[in-house]
Amino acid sequence: MSSAVFIPLIPSAAAPVRARKASFLAGCQRLAARLFTSRRAPAAAATAPVLTAFQEAERVRAMADDLLKTDPDFAQELYAAADRHEYEHAARA
């Protein structure tokens, strides 16, 4: 009997599967950690300026101006929505 150790020259077929499984499980672990850790809202979102109804309507009208040449029907809908929004908020004040 020989004392030689058998070392296969061809890697095991299960080795890539084990590596993929370990990588997949590590990814799942990172995802779960991200899902269950609480995070505060970004500071920029917390300090966003409060817009008036007029300012919001003006932003929608600016979008409508950009779309007027490419999609005039949708632009008209945006103009109407901006007017409704401004009118509804003016009635509440």
Helix content: 55-70%
**Overall mean pLDDT score?**
81
User: Largest sheet, described in full?
Assistant: none
Taking the alpha carbons of the first and last residues, their distance comes to 99 Å
Q: Low-confidence runs (pLDDT<50, min 5 residues)?
A: none
Helix count from the secondary structure assignment: 4
Question: What is the chain-wise order of helices and strands?
Answer: HHHH
Question: What Rg do the Cα atoms give?
Answer: 30 Å
Shape: elongated
General description of the model:
- With 93 residues, the chain is an all-alpha fold.
- The protein has a domain at 50-92.
- Helices cover 68% and strands 0% of the residues.
- It has four helices and no strands.
- Helix 3 runs antiparallel to helix 4.
- The longest helix has 23 residues, at 14-36.
